[in-house]
Every structure is written in C-alpha cells, then in structure tokens.
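Protein modeling request. Please complete all fields; requests missing the sequence field cannot be processed.
Requester role: graduate student
Desired output: 3D structure, token encoding
Chains: 1
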Amino acid sequence: MTRQKGQVLVLVAIMLVVLLGMLALALDGGHAYLQRRQMQTAADAGALAAAREYCAGRPGWQEMGRHYCEDLNGAQSCEVGLDPTRQRTVQVVAEITVPTWFAGVIGMSSIIVRAAAQAACSAPAGLGDMLPFAVKLPDGVGFEEGQTYQFWYKTPSQEDDPRGAFGFVDWPWLESGEGEAACTCSGGGTKLLECVIAQPQCAPWVQTEKWWNFPEPGAELNPLIDALRKYWLCNENGAIVPIYDKREGSGNTTEYYVVGFGRFVINGICTGQGPGKQWACKGVPTPLPCGPGDKIVQGEFIESVSGEQPDPNAGYYGVYVVHLLR
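Delivered output (326 residues):
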C-alpha cells in the first residue's frame, strides 16, 4: 500500500507539472501574444515616424523613430535603421521582456517578445492641392534636391529645350462650376487663374502615368507670373506642381502626360531685362539669365510628404507618401 501511495504521489507531481505547463502556455502564452501585438504597433509607429523624418532630410529621424516606438507605444528598446537593399526604407525592431506567471515551473521566468516593421517613401499615385503650373521633365530625367532649375515659358514647338519649360494650365472643373465647393475661385480667364494660384486647394485630384486634358488658359501671361511672384516667391514651403514628360494638342484639346509631382520653391522670377523685370530672394545671384523676351521662373525642388497611396510605377521627384511595407 505504501508503495502504491508513493506511485500516486509521483504521478500527481508529474501531472501537476504538466497542468502548470498547460496553464503557462494558456496564460503566459496569451499574455505574450498580446505583448506581441503591442510591439507590432510600436514597430509600425516607429517605422512610419522615422521614415517621415528621414525622407524629409531631418537628422533626428532615428531618435524620432525610437520616441514613437518606446516612449509612445511601450517598447523597452527599439533598433532603428535603414534597409540596405531598398532606397528610402526604414526598418524598426521593437522588443520587450515579459515576466511569466507560471512558466517558471518549466524554467522560463520571462519571455522576450519582438516585432519588426518597415516603412518606405514612395511616389504618390495621385495628388490635388497644387499650382496650375506644369513643369516639363528636362531630358527625361529627375530633379536633384538643392539644385537650382530654370524653366522658360515656351510654346509647344519650343518646349523640348533642354533647359526645361513650364506652362500654366486651366482646371476645366472650375469653369464648369464643379470646384466652387472646394475653394472660393470661380469664373474664368485671368482672374480665375490668379485666384487658383493663390489657392492651390482648388486643384483637382490628378493621377500619375495618365494623360490629362488641361486646356491652355485663356489668360494674360504677365498677371499670372505676377501672382506667382506675389504668393510664392521666396516661400520656403514651396508649392506642389505637376510634372509631365509629353504634351499634345493645343488650346482646349491640350493634354499632358503627368509622370509625378514636385514641391517647388521659387527663388527667382524674371520677365525680361532691366529694372522692374527681375526679382530674386536674398542670396540668389542676379541678374537672372533672362533675355528681352524671356519669361523665366527658377527655384529648387525639396522633399515633401503628401498623398495617400503609393504608386510603384510613378516617378519620384521629391513628393512622396510614407507607407508600411510590412
């Protein structure tokens, strides 16, 4: 009988360990799973915050990623770095050590929980809120941040000039009355376009890699350049402009093939030679290279976050959308 009692005690001890192991799996495992979801949230937030700062060229992007990952979302530690295999891609690994309640019975006093995320900056699939100021992609290449570009106002027969070209475009939505709910601009002609230059939010939503019918405006050129000068010359925030690489037609049938968007900071404008025809921001060399009949707008493209959806096929010209890859 004593031997049988001893065997029962051994079996009970074994079963108790098994039961505690099952309890540890259920409770500690469930708690670890919840912490895993929290770490994924922390990693996602850190990656998005770091990518936004990194693509904007700000030096504290890693610190910002850790702030969102650790301070705001509860991770004990976060590794923030770049993915060496992809451009403009930030990766974050969030970690926390979770103490166990029952798993100590099987030798586990704590569980290390990790989660990883990647966020990237890609060209947006479409944008609104931009100037009616279409810029020709010079020589089919992109723009370098910080470099000054000069765009000449040209007719379609001249716009292949390698120096680059620009043209004002009309939003037909406004003249049909569809845009009045989005802005205070209405009517037509020069006054309408001057108003739209002052209020970029009047622009329609335009997608990339598509042909768009943007009629040539029935407007005087000099008042439109004056509006650019009044509202956007030396504005360090710049304004978004559509970038095209092909143009066809004329007048109301003019179509542009939009390949992307850039945020353009205007630092110089000229409408000819001599006093009263050239304007430049402080520190910009003058006189500008403007001939007697030239109309030139010059400036720089800067990095900018905008848009809602990425487009892997669109060209990247400085305006981007931040999104999670995984």
